């Protein structure tokens, strides 16, 4: 019988997953987010291996010192100059800090894409343009272990890097959810269809991150379920116009075209020496606006 975890309002049955999260300890192969206690800066370290270390300006951290430690433990550099709290990295922290084969799809766009595709657990999603695997992981988490993500890329280096990132994230939690394919999606999508089944509409959503989706979308429509969505990641408006013009006459309608922006704010207390009072800083962080990356264009299949 599974134990119960204490909630603020009641006792709730503990699933194997939330028990594992509550009592998580770092092991070889894990990634760890180090949060510097003094400055609150974060550093990703991993995968953890015996004999490996991470150099910091204030000292050195050995991987062995992290293995076996639970989350929120405090560790220090070899010369005790800096202290760090250990955190399990979030998906955003992971995809932004692992080595890049190319620019990842950032969280502000990835979360919007998941919403625009209206993904539910158990869905099957087709992705063209695997890239660094960042969006692939967001899609895999959305479809959950009951779903599936089929992802294509024409570059072997990108596909291999993405596969490694998916296999390493959260101890391979989504490695069985994602299938990687090398080549042009229009040429190879037919291999995913069961020839013994007359129904070719096998996908609940299609995500296209490619320079000219207008040349591919017509060949992919037969494999998308009716009344479901295609989202295209397009860096400039010229690509959007080419797409809209190319889809005239196809059984699709344009639902929306959005551009997402995030502005991070710095909200913290500071000490005024002259008056010995506390004041609050509230301003855009580094005056940096995470602005334009792409236009997200959403199409709905109508027949």
TrEMBL record:
InterPro entries: SAM-dependent_MTases_sf, TRM61_C, tRNA_MeTrfase_Gcd14. Residues 87-279 form the tRNA (adenine(58)-N(1))-methyltransferase catalytic subunit TRM61 C-terminal domain. Pfam families: GCD14 (PF08704). The keyword Electron transport does not apply. GO terms for cellular component: mitochondrion; tRNA (m1A) methyltransferase complex. Its EC number is 2.1.1.220. This is tRNA (adenine(58)-N(1))-methyltransferase catalytic subunit TRM61.
């Amino acid at each position: 019988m599974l134990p119960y975890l204490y909630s603020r309002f009641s006792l709730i049955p503990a699933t194997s997953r939330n028990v594992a999260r509550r009592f998580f300890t770092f092991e070889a192969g894990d990634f760890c987010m180090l949060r510097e206690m003094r400055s609150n800066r974060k550093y990703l370290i991993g995968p953890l291996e015996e004999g490996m270390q991470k150099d910091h300006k204030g000292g050195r951290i050995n991987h062995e010192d992290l293995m076996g430690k639970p989350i929120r433990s405090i560790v220090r550099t070899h010369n005790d100059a800096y202290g760090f709290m250990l955190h399990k990295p979030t998906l955003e922290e992971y995809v932004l800090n692992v080595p890049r084969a190319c620019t990842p799809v950032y969280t502000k766009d990835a979360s919007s894409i998941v919403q625009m595709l209206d993904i539910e657990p158990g869905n099957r999603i087709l992705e063209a343009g695997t890239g660094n695997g960042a969006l692939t992981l967001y899609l895999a988490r959305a479809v959950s272990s009951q779903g599936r993500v089929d992802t294509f890329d024409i570059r072997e280096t990108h596909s291999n890097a993405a596969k490694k990132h998916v296999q390493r994230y959260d101890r391979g939690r989504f490695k069985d959810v994602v299938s990687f394919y090398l080549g042009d999606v229009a040429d190879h999508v037919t291999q995913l269809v069961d020839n013994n089944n007359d129904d070719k509409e096998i996908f609940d959503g299609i995500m296209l991150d490619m320079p000219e989706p207008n040349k591919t979308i017509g060949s992919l429509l037969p494999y998308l379920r009716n009344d479901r969505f295609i989202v295209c990641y397009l860096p400039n408006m010229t690509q959007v116009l080419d797409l809209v013009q190319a889809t005239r006459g196809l059984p699709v309608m344009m639902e929306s075209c959005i551009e997402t922006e995030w502005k991070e704010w710095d909200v913290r207390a500071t000490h005024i020496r002259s008056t010995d009072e506390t004041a609050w800083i509230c301003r855009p962080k580094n005056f940096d606006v995470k602005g334009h990356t792409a236009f997200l264009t959403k199409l709905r299949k109508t027949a």
